[in-house]
Automatic annotation (TrEMBL):
Domain 4Fe-4S ferredoxin-type, residue spans: 35-64, 75-104
GO biological process assignments: aerobic respiration
Entry GO terms, CC: membrane
Name of this chain's protein: Dehydrogenase
Keyword terms: 4Fe-4S, Iron, Iron-sulfur, Metal-binding, Repeat
Keyword Repeat attached: yes
Residues forming coiled coils: none
Lyase as UniProt keyword: no
Lineage: Archaea, Methanobacteriati, Methanobacteriota, Stenosarchaea group, Methanomicrobia
A GO term for molecular function: 4 iron, 4 sulfur cluster binding
Length: 135
């Protein structure tokens, strides 16, 4: 066993390292990666199709302000990221393309309590910061 490991080490001595220096060097993500959702409030009509198609019932339709400066409210989706499967069905079924997927996956998800994983429409629209870097 020891000789086998030494032979493997000598064989791979000139190959590039396999390990990555995460988080110093971020991992390159594929184009189809599904990270945290992003909401475009100007496109959302509050129809609730995203909530009806969610297989894990992670999406609720709630009333929220249209913009940070406005007192006017409308219906928007709120997502419980702790229950979300990141399957993308809500994004695929949105008739107005108001929901989209981002490549953010660590800065916004690592939280300590369940209440911090309830993403309001303001958080989904990135009107308030959701991650450490404000993503």
């Amino acid at each position: 066993m020891v000789l086998k490991n030494i032979a493997r080490a000598v064989k791979n001595i000139y190959k590039p390292p396999i390990t990555r220096r995460y988080p110093e060097v971020p991992t390159e993500l594929p184009d189809r990666f599904r990270g945290l959702q992003k909401l475009d409030k100007s496109k959302c009509i509050g129809c609730g199709i995203c909530a009806n198609t969610c297989p894990n019932s992670a999406i609720k339709i709630v009333r929220a302000r249209v913009s940070p400066d406005s007192e006017k409210t409308r219906w928007f989706p709120a997502i419980d990221i702790g229950h979300c499967l990141f399957c993308g069905l809500c994004i695929d079924q949105c008739p107005q393309d108001a929901l989209s997927s981002t490549k953010v996956y660590t800065t916004g998800v690592i939280r300590w309590t369940h209440e911090e994983l309830l993403y309001t429409p303001d958080m989904l629209a990135r009107e308030v910061p959701v991650g450490e870097n404000g993503e």
